[in-house]
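Instructor's aside before we start: the two examples that follow are unrelated to each other. I chose them only because their records fit on one page, so don't look for a connection. First example below.
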Amino acid sequence: MKIEIRLFATLASYADHGDMDSDGCLSFDGPATIRDAARRLGVPEQDIKLVFLNGVGASLDSSLKDKDRVGIFPPIGGG
């Protein structure tokens, strides 16, 4: 299965991982969750605040299927 994953703001540096293809996709041979994808990219779980799966809020334990789109955001501060 192949999923598209986008890492935003301070997490964007993890997108340079060698497992991602030029389209920003990761491939999995079997069942996987968003947590599995984040771990594979080396994203520290404590740095993840919001997760979206196909444009809808999700959790790290959400199961993935072929062609899913995942967005992962860190906590965002401002003032």
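Example two begins here.
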Amino acid sequence: MTNTEKLTQAFCEALMIDASAVTNELSYQGIAEWDSISHMVLISEIEGAFEVSLETDDVIDLSSVAKAKEILSKHGVDFN
């Protein structure tokens, strides 16, 4: 499984949405499913999938799929 697939799966599991909805433009509170509660579930899914521990600033900054990729890149995760 690629890192993009792992990230997509994390979003699908946390937000209970279809993979087709997971695009770089998908943003926090951009859909009803991504609220403050599901945001914390998403953080947990991402940390588990990529075996990373996100800093508080990263948790707050994670506002879109694109931003999630940017944050994970700082932890050595490649999306190319």
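The mean pLDDT is 97.
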